[in-house]
Amino acid sequence: KKYNVAILGATGAVGREFIKLIEERNFPYNELKLLASERSAGKEIEVAGKKYTVEEARPDSFKEIQIALFAGGSISKTLAPEAVKFGAVVIDNSSAFRMDPEVPLVVPEVNPEAIKQHRGIIANPNCSTIIMVMALKPIYDSVKIKRVVVSTYQAVSGAGKEAIDELTDQVEAVMEERPVKARVLPSASLDKHYQIAFNLIPHIDIFVDGDYTKEEMKMVNETHKILNDPSIGISATTVRVPVYRAHSESINLELDGPLSPPEAKELLAKFPGVIVQDNPAEMIYPMPLLASGHDEVFVGRIREDKSVKHGLNMWVVGDQIRKGAALNAVQIAEYMIHQNLI
Length: 342
Ligand code: 2RA
Description:
It is a single chain. By secondary structure, the chain is α/β, with parallel strands linked by helices. The chain is 29% helix and 25% strand. It has eight helices and 14 strands. The strands form three sheets. It has a six-stranded parallel sheet with strand order 5-2-1-6-7-8, with helices on both faces. A six-stranded mixed sheet has the order 10-9-11-14-13-12. Strand 12, helix 7 and strand 13 form a beta-alpha-beta unit. It starts with a strand and ends with a helix. Bound molecules: 3-amino-D-alanine. 3-amino-D-alanine (2RA) binds next to helix 3. One of its GO terms (biological process) is 'de novo' L-methionine biosynthetic process. GO terms for molecular function: aspartate-semialdehyde dehydrogenase activity; NAD binding; NADP binding; protein dimerization activity.
């Protein structure tokens, strides 16, 4: 069976990855509609050898559409319910509906059972959350988790094409001893911007209560929802680093029971979508340059934390644009097709 598919945000970093993935994975589409803001409408994009013209997204763009992949952004809030009215299933990468009790928040390898509760919209979790829960799930299922302390090292791709270009421009400017321009990070919407080249910015999205950022609270709240366990203590520090595509995370766990590093490695290696890269003697561990462009989440530096009872450390790396966003959403759609949920 083939489906009429729409991609909203087709010209952005995540939207372009959607297109790459439906080609690579032979996604079963009949009609394909590429939708974007008025600014990007009119662009021509080739998909599987056929040329498509990007159309301005409007509510009636979703007439006849069965699967709508939303790359993210505020436009989701208004257009997702409109697309559902036309009978489409919307898989939304924006944060608009993630904490809505009627909207499943899904990583297919972690909580696929949540998908069938959907009422038209399924939310794709935040990239840093997806990458973390892929590593937490096999451990959680074995010995439950009391507390998570995570520090992230997030690629500029998370802030979109403009941030990717800005990193390049700034590195060139520094090398050529020209003035460095900062216009995008930490967030284009803020009125102060900082250089990311050769720097780290401990600020992603906006500040909220308790001087945490929204990005940090997403990791807390979304993980609770996906694992369906609000009792897990979670503390996050999210940092932007001068890396192009893959997010890295240093994760410290206090488990509810004993789990040695070899036992943890075995659980992780068996988990679909996770690859263990952990051999210090051979200098084998995940790195963003190695993880970029891949589908899996990579885990290494697995070691006991003797400073607490049942303590465990690990280092987790995943491609923010693929598993962190576009791939996870496409896998949700594929799962629904295979389970006859669409
Ligand atoms: C970021 N997680 O990295 C956010 C959105 N992708 O900027």
